Every structure is written in C-alpha cells, then in structure tokens.
Amino acid sequence: MSWNKITGNKGEELAVNYLLQHGFIIVERNWRFRYAEVDIIAAKENRLRFFEIKTRTSDKYGKPEESMSHKKMSMLKTAAEEYQYKNPQWKYVQFDVLAITIINDEPVEYFLIEDVYF
C-alpha cells in the first residue's frame, strides 16, 4: 500500500472520530458514483454534509486544504447530486473540507472549512 494511501486512510479515521465528537452522524464512508468519491457523508441538524478529507504529514508542500482543486470539487458535487437523487429525503445539503495535519509528535491539527461554494 502506498504512503499516500496509508496517510489518507489514517486521516479518514481521524476525521470520523473528530466528526462524531462534534455531534455528527456518519451516514456513508467512501461513497462512489462512477469516477467520483465522497470521503464522508455525515448528518447534523437535519443537514446532509459531504466531506472531502485532506491529510498531510508535513507542510513541505503546503497546508492540506490548499490541495483542494476545482476538479475535485466538481467531482464531489457530481457525486453529491447523485446521492441526493437516490436519497430525496435530504432537502438541505452542504459541502465541507476537513483538513488534517499529522506531524510526528505534534498534536493532530484539524481545520474545518464549512459550507464551501464552488
């Protein structure tokens, strides 16, 4: 398994724990539609939230949230539209980015960007 995949998996596990601690209900993980994937779909306060999780183990190439591209956001939106089509009970949705930085012995850093528009 590649280092990036290991880091991504660890980040997603940390993200799930973070979201649960902050009152979210995890609805889906790694939900796929064609070529697009949503890392985590969670609910809170009658709103469905589509999370992209970005994890880095150093700041050599910048902060994790800086790696969010327009292409990735477009794929996230496509997958979310399909999910909402298949689950029409969800009237309110939003897109969020959870950036996680894991650097050696330092505390894990979380940065939640809510209600991202693209």
Structural class: alpha+beta
CATH fold-type name: Trna Endonuclease, Chain: A, domain 1
Total strand segments = 5
What share of residues is helical? 25-40%
Roughly what fraction of the amino acids lie in strands? 35-45%
Describe this structure in words.
- This protein has one domain: 3-Layer(aba) Sandwich (Trna Endonuclease, Chain: A, domain 1), CATH 3.40.1350.10.
- It is an alpha+beta fold.
- A hairpin with a 2-residue loop joins strand 2 (36-44) and strand 3 (47-56).
- It starts with a helix and ends in a 5-residue tail after the last strand.
- A 5-stranded mixed beta sheet has the order 1-2-3-4-5.
- 31% of the residues lie in helices and 36% in strands.
Short description:
The protein has helices at 3-21, 70-86; strands at residues 25-33, 36-44, 47-56, 93-101, 109-113. The protein has 118 residues and is an alpha+beta fold. The protein has a single domain, classed as Trna Endonuclease, Chain: A, domain 1, CATH 3.40.1350.10.
How are the SSEs placed, and which strands pair?
Blueprint: H1 3-21, E1 25-33, E2 36-44, E3 47-56, H2 70-86, E4 93-101, E5 109-113
Parallel strand pairs: 3-4
Antiparallel strand pairs: 1-2, 2-3, 4-5
Describe this protein with a few key phrases:
single chain, 118 residues, alpha+beta, Trna Endonuclease, Chain: A, domain 1, five-stranded mixed β-sheet, 31% helix
